[in-house]
Amino acid sequence: MEEPPKKYFRLFPGNEVRLMNAYFVTCTDFKKDENGVVTEIHCTYDPETKGGDSADGRKVKGTIHWVAAKEAVTAEVRLYENIIDEEKGVYNEDGSLNLNPHSITVIKDAKLEPELGEASCYDKFQFVRNGFFCVDSKDSKPGAPVFNRIVSLKSSFVLPKN
User: Fold this and answer.
1) Tens digits of per-residue pLDDT, 132-141?
2) Rounded to whole angstroms, how far apart are CA atoms 129 and 155?
3) Is the same domain home to 105 and 148?
4) Domain contains 84
5) How many CA atoms lie within 13 A of 18 on its CB side?
């Protein structure tokens, strides 16, 4: 994020984070395309931080997981939420069920670790910071996997609304 809000501990210019299973990295620069979409991120890394700790005692507040798009498998990912909008109550005033309009979100072009392309029906995985997923037995096909979120993980960070 180019200009992050307060309490955003992920990668942004000048911030140092831990690259999962690797080093501390600091964003030094980035490039955008003609539409303003970030297409490159330039970082430095500290070779003394392999394994997650720094010799000088520096601490980082964020750990990120990176998947290179060129090597990634493209998959459909379905994010299921409660079918009932519990914040508003189970029933509407007319007695009908108060259905959650966001009970499913479908991501058609998710980029995942290449090994997930070999997953079989009913295999289960934890996707970092997102939840637990199962390979869909009906809609997954070789070369076109579909993953259903079966349990979500709670996150305390919410992007501010524009």
Assistant:
1) 999 999 999 9
2) 8
3) yes
4) yes
5) 16
In which band, very low, low, confident or very high, does the pLDDT at 160 lie, cut at 50, 70 and 90?
low
* pLDDT tens column, 44-69: 999 999 877 788 888 898 888 888 88
Residue 55: CA atoms inside 13 Å, Cβ hemisphere, count? 4
Which amino acid is present at 136?
D
User: For the chain, what's the residue count?
Assistant: 162
Looking from the CA of 127 toward its CB, the CA atoms found within 13 Å total 23
- Whether 105 and 145 share a structural domain: yes
pTM: 0.71
Helix (H, G, I), strand (E, B) or coil at 118: helix
Residue 157's pLDDT is what? Answer: 54
Tokens of 44: 């430095």
Residues 6+ apart with CB under 8 A from 114: 71, 72, 73
Is residue 4 situated within a structural domain? Answer: no
Domain that holds residue 130: 73-152
CATH number of the domain that residue 55 is part of: 2.40.240.10
